[in-house]
Amino acid sequence: MINRIFQRIKNFIMNLKISVKIMLFYFILLIFSISTSSFLYQNIHSSIMSDKVSDVSIQNLYSIKSNIEATINNVNNYSKVILSSDDVQNSLRNSNIDLDTQRKVNTYLLKLIDAIPQISSVYVFDNFGNKYAVDKLTTKNWILDNVKKAIWYNDVVEKKGGYILKLNAGGVFGKICDKNFVSLIRVINDLNSQKPIGILFVNILEDSFRYSYEDMKYNTDLILLDEEDEYIINGKNIKNLDLEKIINNAEEKNSYSTVMKIEGREYLISYLKMDIFNWKIISIMPFNELSRESSIFSLIAFVVILVNGLLIFIGSTLIARLITTPIKNLLRSMKDVENGRFEKVDVKTGNDEIGKLRDGYNIMISQIQKLIDKLLEEQKVKRKAELYALQAQIKPHFLYNTFDAISSLALMGRTQEVYDIMMALGSFYRTSLSKGKEIITIAEELEMVKNYLKIQKYRYNDMFSVTFDIDERVIKFKILKLVLQPLVENALYHGIKPKGANGHIYVAAKINQDFVKLIVEDNGVGMSEEEINNVLTRNEKNDCSSFGIKGTVERLRIFYGTKDVIEIESKKWHGTKVTITVPMVEEEREDVR
Fold it and tell me: How far apart are CA 333 and CA 518, in angstroms?
C-alpha cells in the first residue's frame, strides 16, 4: 500500500514539466535549507555560546582566584606588622600582664582592624594562657580553650613563622551570625631569640571573599571550598549538588567546565583549583539564562534565512524559465528525428549548456550515422570473410589434390591408407560445416586441424612434422569456427613449403589467467614487417594469397570486438608465430563483446 502511494507520487512528479520540477525542487530545498540551517544554527550557536561562556566562566574563576589570593596576601602582610610590633612582642614575653598593657595591645589591634576592612577580628595567645582579642562583630564562640590541643597546632609550628589557613580557626571558634570565616594562623616568634612566644589568629569573614564575585552575570552562584572540601562560601540557590562528582571529575586537571542537570534543570558547572592553598572555586550558571540571550539572535538569524530563501525561490523561478524556454525550442526542432531523418538540429542559443546540448546532439547524430556506415562495412567484411571460409572448405584444388592422392594409393593397393584419408576428409568437412554453427569447442577445432594435417601428411610425406601442446582444461571452451585451420594452412603453404626443406609446425592451447591462448608457430620462411602490417590492416588491395589468414583476422576482430585478439611475431627466414587470445567461454552465444 505504501509502495503504491510512493509510486504514484513518483509518477506524478516525473510527469511534471521541467519548469515545475525546478520550482518544486527549489521549494523543497528551500524548506529543507531553512529547517536545517535553523537547526544547525541553533545547535552550533548554542555550542559556541556554551564554549565561549565556559571560557569566560573559567576566566572569571581565575579573576576571583586572583582577588582571593590578593586578599590573603594583604592580610598576611598586616599579620607580619602585628607580630613585629614592639608592644605585642613585649606583652607576650611576660607571663603577668597588667590592665594597661592589655589595653594598650588591644587598642593597637583595634586600630589595625579598623583600617583594614578585610579583617573582622584578631586574636593573640601567649604561652601562659593569656589572650588579646579584638573583634568588629562580637566575641567568638569558644570551642577549644587551649589552642595547643588543636589538631593543626604542630602544622603551624613546623611552618616556623609561616602561616596556615583554617576554616573557623580550625575548630577553635564556632560560626558567628551563621557566617564562616577563614583564619590566618601563624606562630609569633621572639624577634630576639626566634623562639615561639605566641599564636596569632587573623580572621577574614566570608563576606570579604564575596566581593570578589559580586559582579558575575547570569544569576551565577559560587562555592568556595577549603583544602578539606569544607564550605567557605556556599551557593544559596542550589540544592542537591553532587559536590563529590564535580571534584572527582577534575582528576588531575586544575580547571574544567561541564553541563550538569540538577533538579531537572541544566547548569554550566565551572571548576578551578587554587594550587597555593589547595582551595576549590566552583561556579554554577543556569543554562536558561544563556538560552534567553541567544534566542534573540536565533530569531534574527531565522528572519534573515527566511528572506534569503524567498529571494532564492524567486530567482529559481526566473532561472527555470530561462532554462526551459530554449529546451522547448530544441524539442520542437528534434521532432523530425523521430521520423527517421538523422539531420542536425538548429536552435538559436548562446554558448551555454543548452548550446552545448545542441552541439552534443548534432555530434551524436553524426556519430550515429558514422556508426551505421561502419556496421554496414563490418558486415560486408564479415560476409566476405565467411564466404572465403566457406570457399576454403570446398577448394577445388584441395579436393582435387586429395582425390588424386587417394587414386594413387588405391592403384597401389594401399587400401588402409585410402580408408584413413577418406575418414579424415569426411571428419574434416563434418566438423567444418558443424550443422551451420559458427561456434564450436576448441576440441572440435583441434580435431579439424589434426584431420587436415593427416591429409596433408599423405600428400607431402615427410616434408613437415607437427607437435601439439594442449592443456586439457581448455578443450571444453567455445571458439569461433575455422580460426586455427587457416593459420595451420598458412604455416604449411606460405611458411614451410617455400622453404624447400623439412619444417615443423607447433600448435598449442593454454590458459593464461581468464583467457585462452592459441598458438600456431612454424620455422618457415617468415614474414617481413610490411607483410605483417598487410595482414593486420584492412586494405582491399591486399594480395589474394594472404586472404586466408587476413579473413581469419577480420572475423576474429569483428566477433570478439577488439584488435588485440591476434598477434603475429615473425622475422624473415626465421619462422612465424601467431597467437590468438580469447576469453574463456563455455556457452554458445552470438558474440563475446
Answer: 53
- Amino acid identity, position 104: K
Give the end of a domain, one of 269, 295, 315.
Answer: 315
Cα(104)–Cα(127) distance, integer angstroms: 19
CA R_g for the chain: 54
pTM (2 d.p.): 0.48
**Are 13 and 157 contained in the same domain?**
yes
- Whether 527 and 513 have beta carbons less than 8 Å apart is answered as no
User: Residue 34, Cβ neighbours under 10 Å: how many?
Assistant: 16
Report the residue count for the chain.
593
Q: Residue 342, SS3?
A: coil
30, part of any domain: yes
Amino acid occupying residue 443: A
Q: Which residues of 304-340 are buried (b: 16+ CB within 10 A; e: fewer)?
A: ebeeebeeeeeebeeebeeebebeebbeebeeeeeee
**All cell numbers assigned to 562:** 577488439
On whether residue 258 sits in a domain, the answer given is yes
Starting at the earlier edge strand, list the strands of the sheet with 566-570: 464-470, 503-512, 515-522, 576-583, 566-570
Output 485 or 350, whichever has higher pLDDT.
485
| 272, 287, 315 - which closes a domain | 315
Asked whether residue 71 is domain-assigned, the answer is yes
Q: Which of 100, 492, 50, 480 is nearest to 287 (CA)?
A: 50
Instruction: Give the Cβ contact number of residue 193 at 10 Å.
Output: 9
The C-alpha atoms of residue 34 and residue 28 are separated, in whole angstroms, by: 10
User: Which three three-digit cell numbers place residue 444?
Assistant: 572440435
In a domain, 353, yes or no: no
Q: Report the first-to-last Cα separation within the chain, whole angstroms.
A: 42
User: What CATH number has the domain bearing residue 428?
Assistant: 3.30.565.10
CA 396 to mean position of chain CA atoms: 72
How many domains are there within the chain? 2
CATH of residue 311's domain is 3.30.450.20
pLDDT of amino acid 102: 81
Shared domain for 53 and 191, answered yes or no, is yes
Residue type (1 letter), 180: N
Q: pLDDT at residue 397 above 80?
A: no
Model confidence pLDDT, tens digit, residues 154-207: 888 888 888 999 888 887 777 666 778 898 999 999 888 888 888 999 998 888
Structural domain of 165: 9-315
